[in-house]
Structures are given as structure tokens and as C-alpha cells.
Design brief:
Layout (H helix, E strand, L loop, with lengths): L19 E11 L2 E2 L4 E13 L2 E8 L5 E8 L9 E6 L4 E10 L5 E10 L3 E2 L6 E8 L5 E7 L11 E7 L24
Parallel strand pairs: 1-9, 2-10
Antiparallel strand pairs: 1-3, 3-7, 4-6, 4-8, 5-7, 8-10, 11-12
């Protein structure tokens, strides 16, 4: 049977496809344990696992006050600070940000640092949009002892000792205790 009305033989549905990207941010610090004055390196890696390109990718990071003179560089986008505009990331692409600095002389305990990532592209579920690195700052003191004595003495004479303790730092030496054992035949008179 021929169709007498060909106008009703088709239909159309309009759908809007939305680009989505899944971003994974990871952050690490080397070394994980450091003393004041040490150089530390933070590494932030942002990976786009797709399915679409991630447009206008920006990483934010409020660096800890314990990190002095930070130098920021990136594998793309030419970042030298934060916020760091990485630009676009194709599916399967990754970008790296490095932050090098010196740990301040008063840094102690846990130094926590978190970075976050955003994109103008809608983000798919399952992404990791922030990463945290924890550094343990351990105080380091460099103590030296210098002892000087009367160059020569005869039996019964007083010998004077001068003992000096120096701290080359970089941290304050806490609860310092000096023990000085006198040679045989010498007795303690006074300090």
C-alpha cells in the first residue's frame, strides 16, 4: 500500500550535547621530612581523563607561610605564581606545576598545603579537584663546643676552663645541657 501522506514519515528530536572533562589533581612534596632552611619541592600534576577537552584550566594554591622565596614553573601556561592558568588540556593530557622554596627557620610540625583545580568545561563525576601534601618540619640545631684551659699549671694552682657552646642553627636549640668531665687529679672549685 502506498502511503498517501508522506509528511508524517519522519520525526526529529533535538538534543544538546554537553562537553565534560574529568580532571585528576595530585600533589606531592619532596622530601616529606625536612629541617628549617632546607629546599623543598612541591609537584602538582593535573590530568584530563576526558572524554572532552578541559578548557581554561586554572590551579589555585595558597602556599604555606613556612615556604620562603617560592619559585613556580609549569609545563604549559607559563605560570610563575598562583592562580596558575594552564590553558586547555586535551583528553589524556597532563600538565605539571613545580614549586620550589626554602623552609623557614621557625617551621616545626606538620606543614599542610592544598591545591585545587577548576575548568570552564563541565566536570564529569569521579574527578579529583584538590590535592594535599603534608611536610613534617623537624627543627635542626648544629651545636659546637669550644673548651679552653690555662695552658700550664703546677700542682695546687687553679686551672681556669672556659667552655663555650655555639649554635649554627638554623633552629633554636632547646633544653641544651652540657656535661664536662674533669681530668683525673682535678677537682671542681667553682663556676
Amino acid at each position: 500500500n502506498p502511503d498517501g501522506n508522506s509528511a508524517n514519515n519522519s520525526s526529529a528530536v533535538t538534543t544538546t550535547a554537553q562537553a565534560q572533562a574529568r580532571l585528576i589533581l595530585s600533589k606531592s612534596v619532596t622530601p616529606p621530612v625536612a629541617g628549617p632552611g632546607s629546599t623543598v619541592l612541591y609537584r602538582i600534576i593535573v590530568t584530563n581523563t576526558g572524554p572532552s577537552a578541559a578548557l581554561t584550566v586554572v590551579v589555585s594554591d595558597l602556599l604555606p607561610a613556612e615556604l620562603l622565596n617560592p619559585l613556580v614553573s609549569s609545563s604549559q601556561g607559563g605560570c610563575n605564581g598562583f592562580a596558575c592558568a594552564l590553558g586547555d588540556l586535551a583528553p589524556g593530557a597532563a600538565a605539571t606545576i613545580l614549586v620550589a622554596g626554602q623552609l623557614s627557620s621557625n617551621a616545626t610540625g606538620l606543614v599542610t598545603n592544598t591545591a585545587t583545580v577548576t575548568s570552564s568545561t563541565a566536570l564529569a563525576a569521579g574527578g579529583v579537584l584538590s590535592g594535599t601534601a603534608v611536610l613534617t618540619a623537624t627543627p635542626v640545631a648544629d651545636l659546637a663546643v669550644v673548651k679552653q684551659a690555662t695552658p700550664t699549671a703546677t700542682p695546687g694552682e687553679t686551672i681556669f676552663y672556659t667552655v663555650t657552646v655555639y649554635n649554627a642553627g638554623p633552629s633554636t636549640a632547646l633544653s641544651v645541657r652540657l656535661t664536662d668531665t674533669l681530668p683525673a687529679g682535678v677537682t671542681y672549685a667553682s663556676a
